[in-house]
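Sorry to interrupt, but I need a hand with the structure work. Go ahead and set the record down below:
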Amino acid sequence: MRLTRRERELLGALAQGGSLKAHRDLEGRKVYLLRRPDGAAETVSEADVHRLVDNRLLDSNKKFPAATFFLTDRAVAVLGRASAGPPPKGLVATSLLPEGPSAGR
């Protein structure tokens, strides 16, 4: 998948500690709001969010009325490859596999 400049910026902002939430307005429409670590806030295109979700780069906690989106392990890998180095600072891909001496049992 080839990311647009805007999609790369969105993933990068989340990787740097920003947050993306889907809020409902008074008419019931979803509004996607990105809050950057510096406190700046901006609306994000619904199409950009849906494309990233459809490509399994973003997922959400699916809460109502304000779902919070987060980077998937796949997005962390894509961001790591894009930077030609390790994943961005602060990102840790997690595993649900057990660790320690009894892990293989």
User: Anything to note?
Assistant: Residues 60 and 83 are 24 Å apart (CA to CA). The chain has one domain: 5-82. The first helix runs from residue 5 to 15.
